[in-house]
Amino acid sequence: DQQVKQNSPSLSVQEGRISILNCDYTNSMFDYFLWYKKYPAEGPTFLISISSIKDKNEDGRFTVFLNKSAKHLSLHIVPSQPGDSAVYFCAASARYNNNDMRFGAGTRLTVKP
Amino acid sequence: DAGVTQSPTHLIKTRGQQVTLRCSPISGHKSVSWYQQVLGQGPQFIFQYYEKEERGRGNFPDRFSARQFPNYSSELNVNALLLGDSALYLCASSNRDSSRVVFFGSGTQLSVL
Q: Do B4 and A42 touch (CB under 8 A)?
């Protein structure tokens, strides 16, 4: 059962423009959401997270938005840089089972110079 | 400070064999989790250990087992390997049992022939 879905396998944007990566989830018990990015031959690197009590969290060029009613979150990167090119994974967990983090299949972001 | 370290980085086994993967967490981290990432998918939770006790188990067969040592390092064992066990095995650590953010190593790429 795929409880976290990233429906866009890939996204290409121009350097300096905004990148928007989307994620949907089905489990209403999820209360904590994370974004990880992964470069080839490396493990996923934690990027930013958000608790369900918030609808926005910002860290530098990265902002995550959470829409609980739509069970949707998005990651905005602005301005996008070529070094942001990587696979981005959305993940979610529930308080009652917080060690079982569920991941989406990932979106490959390519930022073109 | 060293991040999460995993060994070996690559491994080739044949069907029916057994394999042991090793992980050293970030210094000071007492929780270790194991994930399996099949090509084209996101990581899937296998186990979590905290203070040498199993805290969580994902939907994997009994062929998969793990343990954590007094120094908080961990081993993942897989018996009777199947072709479908070919994947990137990721270890992640966190400093608390209830931590919602985990930090990944670079993984062990296992190929079963």
A: no
